[in-house]
Amino acid sequence: MIERELTVANRLGLHARATARLVQLLSGYDVNATLTAKGREVNAKSIMGVMLLAAGTGTAVTLRIEGADEAAAAEDVCALFERRFDEDS
Question: What residue stretches are annotated with the HPr domain (predicted)?
Answer without folding.
Answer: 1-88
